Amino acid sequence: MKKFLIFSGLAAVCLFILLKKEQMFMFAPAEKETTANASGLKLIKTSFGELKNWNLDSQIDAAESFRRSCKKIINENKKFMSDAELRLPTDSYKKICQKFLKKQPIDTPSFKKFIEENFTPFLVTENGKEKGKFTSYFEASVNASRIPDKTYKYPIYGKPFDLVEINLKDFDSELPNRRLVGRIENQKFVPYYTRREIEKNKINAPVLLWGDSLIDIHIMQIQGSAVAKLNTGEKVRIGYAENNGLPFKGIGSVLLEKGLVKPGEASMSHIKKWLKNNPGKAEENLHENNRYIFHRLTNSDGPIGAHGVALQAGRSLAVDRKYIPLGALLWLETTGPDKEKIEKLVVAQDIGSAIKGIVRGDYFWGSGADDVLDKAGRMNSTGRYFIFIPKEMEKLYE
Question: 316-318 and 341-350: which strand pairing?
Fold first, then answer.
């Protein structure tokens, strides 16, 4: 009965989207380069010798990230990894992962040899362009308590009990693989509450902890996770659980549009200082971001990314999984906030609401407080990346 009510509330939405349904594309072979999709995604075969500083990267650090994703991949049943537009057969990665987990290379030379024997690098391009935007994020730090009081008065919510998640494809295989989040009201499926509504009213959700700063909680939500320092001296990790399904609008763009900060002063560390120094205006402006993140407590040794594994500082990259499969090995070439070179092996292990596009990435800087916030918040670089295609499949992409 409940399933019927949800479906009836969605009938009009599904019918509308069915009439305007998106065409699904799959990579097809071409003569020398992959055929471009409607999005402009194209791969260009290259060699390891074309990767800047390939022989200088301490790749054994990346081996741990790859191991974590491999354990996830070998249990996946989908035909293509992440169902991304770049159709990468799961079985081809499974074979390599099984071989890798059996061998477990223990140093950079052996891991480098393993990669070269099993993969071929392909440059990722969009409409003929190889350069894109690369930013950075980190695992934030918040002060919290298990019990509310005058200091710890801001709730850190878990996933609401009344939040409903659906996928249009579950109702009709011809519909797009599109996820919707909302709630049931008067037997209709409606959007979930906005940030303003959630923070102004009590919602039907568990409160995991109580924080002492609405600003720090907001930053935690932007980053997706945090380490909570409890007033008892304990430390607990807070991970991402769900979001309210509404559009994200960065606080930096809000303040820039209103002229409250100047161009060039929109780094996260500067924005945090502005919010702390203007408490009367902070909440009003934060409410312009309708997206709200719900959390969960975890026992992992790092923040959990969208691929379901713990992220590793300097080796995990958030991508747009519409195009790039989660779990895929990538070679990243960009620069950090102080123009330092970042040329290293990373794994696509996370996503972000602001990470949209083919050549687009968010580099995981690590965990920490304002010092790490400053580094991650200032990174806004141009760069490129290569995806590693299993050798047995490379002919399909040449």
Answer: parallel
Residue bearing tokens 């980053």: 223
Tally the C-alpha atoms within 13 A of residue 280's C-alpha that lie toward its C-beta. Answer: 0
Give the number of residues written for the chain: 398
pTM of the shown model: 0.75
* DSSP 8-state assignment for residue 77: -
Cβ–Cβ < 8 Å for 375, 365: yes
Write the pLDDT tens digit of every residue in 177-188: 888 999 999 999
Q: Are 194 and 41 in contact (CB under 8 A)?
A: no
Three-state secondary-structure class, residue 195: helix
Residue 138: strand pairing partners: 366
CA distance 19 to 197: 33
| DSSP structural state of residue 288 | T
Cβ-proximal residues to 369 (8 Å cutoff; 6+ apart), any chain = 141
CA dist 124 → 43, 79, 360, 379 (Å) = 5, 22, 10, 21
As given in the structure block, the two tokens for residue 393 are 């499949």
Q: Count CB atoms within 10 A of the CB of residue 335.
A: 16
Q: What is the pLDDT of residues 207-226, one digit of tens each?
A: 999 999 999 999 999 888 89
